[in-house]
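Sequence in, structure out.
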Amino acid sequence: MMNYAFEWIRDNRMVVGAAAIVIVALTIVSCSEETTTGFQNREPGTPTVLWPADGSVNQTTDLILAWQCLDPDGDSLRYDLYVGSTSEPSIVDSNRVNTIYIPAIMKFNTTYYWKVIAFDEYGDSAASPIWSFSTRREPGIYEVASCTLEIGNTNWCVLQAHDNYALVAGNYSPLIFVNITDPEDPFAEFEYSAPGYVYDIEFDGNLAYLAEIDYGLEIVDITNPASPVRIGSFPIGEGVFSVELSGNYAFVAGNGAYTLDISNPSSPIPVDSTFQYQMMHLTIAGSYVYAVHADFEVSVLDSYDIVNGTTLQYNFSRHLNALATDITTNNQHLFISLWDGTVRALTISDFPSEISRFASLHGFYDIFLDSDIIYAANGSGGVKMISFADLLNPALIAGYDTGSSVLSIHANRGFIFAIDSDSRFLVLEYLP
């Protein structure tokens, strides 16, 4: 009996022990499966662009590429980067950690495509869409728009911009009002028939002072461009080539220089005059009047003091050894354009002396000065922008070939306006 009991106890202990082993084993397996199946790695989020914005234009060529990407599990991420000028960009860097990339200098006026693939530490990945951006055009002068004007046989012309209009006249053509309200769509809108043909224009508010060959000075109210009104005039023999305004006085030049009191524009009164043959261009700098007159095939620069605000007192003459086409000033220096293909900078004094010159292969027709930048109508050399910031070393900023000779130029509201020998009115823009 005792042997039976012992055997029973022994057998049951074996069963219990075996059962315990099974339970422990099941528990280990269960725990192992929970550890394995309870963690599921999630792939990274889709990378998003920070800079430059997708589809952006006019980007610089030295830009950076930046993106961001978040992993839902907080895993460390690495990236493969693809960049190129085709819609299927090539890989340029792999296994990178940084989300900012500085590419090599890019080409101007080019569309680039790029994408990022993010990888977490378990090898799961997420790709961005393909983004794009376009770089800006190369620095220079570009044509915005143009229109053709009826200004006859064009071997010279005058152009001045005023508010929403550019006033243009050519050989015996009417004065044309070109609407430039939208510089991308200029058009000839109105005309004014002057008694002479207009060679120079100056503005005082809505009054246009017209220097007219074969007539003299005409003062026109252009408040309503559709119906300009002559309010005053001063006929002068064979007419005048140039006009400059200073306070209540107008200085006009033709076969001599005249000072007119224009405090009442409807009745200009002569207060002084000095004779000099073919005074073609003049400018005022402080208490000086500088005039250029023709001497056969070259020009002479004359210097005058303005005494008592009206009287011209002769100081000095300087031969320029070429035919001058325009003269202007920034009240610090004089600038003269000439047929010999030079633009010269001179001192302002009783006896102006040359500081430097910019030389071109083509003769200059007209110049417009804005601070220390000369906008030049360079004939068959096109349009030129010349910097005189360093007076001793004037430098070309940019040029533009219109395909024909450029005769007159003006800069206003961030645009360059020009007339060429094909009677085209050009709207240009400089992109620095």
